[in-house]
Write the structure tokens for this entry.
Amino acid sequence: MASNLSRGLWIDLARVASGAYRRLMRKYPRVSVLALAALAVVALSGCFAAAPVEPPAPTASAAPVFASEEEALAAATEAYAAYLAVSDQVLGEGGAGPERVNEVASGVARDEALSSFESFSVQKFRSTGNTTFHQLIVQGYLPAGDADAEIITIYVCVDISAVDVLDDTGRSVVAPTRPDFQAYEVAFGIHPQNEIALIVSRAEAWAGSGVCT
């Protein structure tokens, strides 16, 4: 899937050479690594009686990360605002300082953001204006989980009406037909440096209806 940041800006194909466009919008495959474990079973025969199997000791339930869904949504709102602010800053500087995204994104979201920043740097593009959002709707909420769990997933309407993309001559490369709003599905995990904060782990364009109305 092409980077959501680049795709959301709708670069005008008539203004970009075909080779450069292919580099800008190239899909980066995501590879899921599955850890497989093999269990060896040894059968004993003869005159030995099988040892009784002790039931596993009960484990304590994991404590919820947030006291309520509303508290998790507030943390997600703050985390997404920080993610968009950093993205705007890096794209506004032509992709310079891409490592800043590590503070606001992880996993797939971080990788796709880095791809967008690299594309801007290669094409010598830069953005202007600020990205905003509204209409957050909770899609799923997991009160407790490990560091890799998606604690909360939301639908959100992203407003890019104030954002433009300029080439190295200062001319806009945004298509006139670009919509001002785009719905996204965004997932959040636990921030690696702050267990009571969230970080964007996945952000995908959402084709469902009702989010941006």
User: Anything to note?
Assistant: The domain at 4-28+69-205 is CATH 3.10.450 (Nuclear Transport Factor 2; Chain: A,). Residues 11-53, 55-61 have pLDDT under 50 and may be disordered. The chain has four helices and six strands.
